[in-house]
């Protein structure tokens, strides 16, 4: 599924993607693809599939927990997200 990012770019959100970002001198894993829109039906972000609590606490989680969520939980959540149609 394709969604529009915060800067208006059309991105593929069908699979969980992992990026490494530097926050406060620490490199952390994140699934964020800059969509940042919650699906009202599932409560998951249409881009990364995290819920509101996970997004807010992501930088304070241990790296092992972030990786576990990315690998074990987020891929399954994608099926519960309702994506609005967009024009590519």
UniProtKB/TrEMBL annotation:
PANTHER family: DUF1289 DOMAIN-CONTAINING PROTEIN (PTHR35175). It comes from Dictyostelium discoideum (Social amoeba). InterPro entries: DUF1289. This is DUF1289 domain-containing protein. It comes from the Eukaryota.
């Amino acid at each position: 599924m394709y969604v529009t990012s915060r800067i208006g770019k059309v991105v593929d959100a069908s699979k969980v993607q992992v990026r490494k970002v530097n926050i406060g001198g620490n490199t952390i894993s994140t699934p964020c693809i800059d969509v940042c829109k919650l699906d009202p039906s599932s409560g998951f972000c249409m881009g990364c599939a995290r819920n509101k609590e996970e997004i807010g606490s992501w930088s304070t989680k241990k790296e092992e927990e972030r990786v576990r969520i990315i690998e074990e939980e987020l891929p399954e959540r994608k099926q519960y997200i309702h994506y609005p149609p967009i024009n590519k």
